[in-house]
Each structure stands twice: as structure tokens, then as C-alpha cells.
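Look over this today:
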Amino acid sequence: MQKLISGEALTSLLPIDAIPGMIRAGVLRGLSGLTVNLALPVLTCVVLSMMTGSHAGFMMDLLCALCCGKVLAQTWFDAQGEVRELVGGILRLTERMTPVLSSAAALTGGSFWATAVGPASTLCAALIQRFVTDWGFKLCAGAAVAALAGAVSGGYALNRLFDLIKGAVHWLLGGAIFLFGALISVQGVLSAAKDGAAVQTAKVALESLIPIIGGGVSDAAGALTVSASLAKSAVGITGVALIVKLCLKPLILLGGRMVALKLLSAVMEPLSEGSAATLIGRFGDILEMLLAIAVCCCVLAAMIPGACAALSGNFLK
């Protein structure tokens, strides 16, 4: 616990110094895996246009978009599978932390908050599984279909539909975080008030019912509660750190591919006269949505140990 309070254990859990290198490696990995497969159709179309002395035509533009679309669709499927795997790991870690957090809260006199940790974890899991990931993945699939349809339709870009879906994803994730955060905050305040009243009642009972030594017993109980409160905060902070550590590498790799797609879209825009560059940029936005979904799940799961660390259990003052 001393290492947690001093910050040494958190430094070992979260390799802060390695994060810049992980980000750089993630971007380079994304570029190396996508550049050739996406640049080759675009450059082929450009070379044919130069050789014929005119635009390659609608069929060549369509073929270029289809080739890029195949690579981008596979990238989207892979990214979605990685997000599903990450969410599964977050849910398993949250399930294992729930009894530990409940026990740590109960040791500090927070019996009401301890009983609320289990339902809060269940609500968090249901919110992540049935609301964030379920609806989020469906909206991302709709955005992918809109992007592909706009690329092969020959002029019907479906920009407004894509922007509408993107906005819906952002509102969905923001609403989930706000709703769960508000519930946790209200629950924490009410539980702290109930626990404070219960512990103060116990303190008065000790001082009144036990002659002479009642005050000493009450002070000793207060000292024990202070130590238990430190342990509870350490457990909560460790839980947050474990969730962040679990999510850090997958989020960086997913973000690296997102940045790679956006960079490739920007570089290929002057070369591509058709919709290939726009399609690549659209799928960069879709990976951004998947990244937002993963970050939202991480934040929702971290709220419970974070609240456990933030709520004071020292009521014997």
C-alpha cells in the first residue's frame, strides 16, 4: 500500500515513458499494413490516366474504389473484432474487481456503498454490452455501408447520411457516460450520507454505553477506519490503473490505424480524381468511432473503482 500511495506501483502498472514509443509504433504499423494495399489501386488509376491522356473513366474509378473498399472493409472487421475482445476483457476484469471493491468499502464503514457496488457493476456491464457496443457497432456498420455505397454510386456521396450516423455515435457514447456518471455520483452521495449517519450513531453509542473507556474505544475505531480508508483508496486507484493498462495498447494500435487512414487520405487526395481518397477518409472516421466506443467502455468500467477511491470512508471524526 505504501508503494501505491507514493506512486511507485502506479508507475510500474502504467508505463508512461513507453507511451510515445507505442503511439509511434502504432502509426507506423498502420501505415505499413495499409499503404501498399490502398496506394496500389490509386496509383494504377493515375498511371492509366497518364498513359491514355485522359481520365480513366467511371469503370476504372469504380474498380479503384472497389479494390480500396475490400481492404478497408477487412480493416474494419479486424478493428471491430479487436474492440469486442477488449470489451470482453474489460467486463471480465470488472467482474473480478467487484467483490474486492465491495469488501474494501465495507471495511471502512461504507456498508451502503458496499452493497451498491454489485448492482452498479451489473448496470455497467449491461450498459456496455446492450447499449454502447450493440448500438455502436450497428451504427458503425451503417456508416461503412453508407461510405461504400457513396463510393460506388457515381456521384451520390451520401455525406449527410454518414455525418448523421457519426453524430449519432458521439451522442450515444456521450449520453452513456453522462447517464452512468450521474447515477454513480447520486448513489455515492446518498450512500455516503447513510454510512456517515450510521457510523456517527455507532460512535455516540460507544461513548455513551461503555463507561470511562467509551471515548478511547471510539478513537481506536476511528484510527482503524482511517487505515482501512487508505487501503480502500489504494484498491480503487489500482483498479483504475489495471483497466487503463488493459486498454492502453489496443487503443493505441487502433488509433494508429485510424491516423494512418487519415494520413493516406490526405496524401492520396491530390492523386485520386475519384472517390478513393474520400472512401479512405470515411473509413478513418469509422475507426475513430470504434476507438470512441472502446474509450467509452474503458471510462464506464473505470468509474466504479474511481468512485470507490474518491468516496471517503472515514466517518469517525
In short: Residues 17-310 form one domain. The chain has a mean pLDDT of 74. The radius of gyration is 27 Å. The chain is about 90% helix and 0% strand.
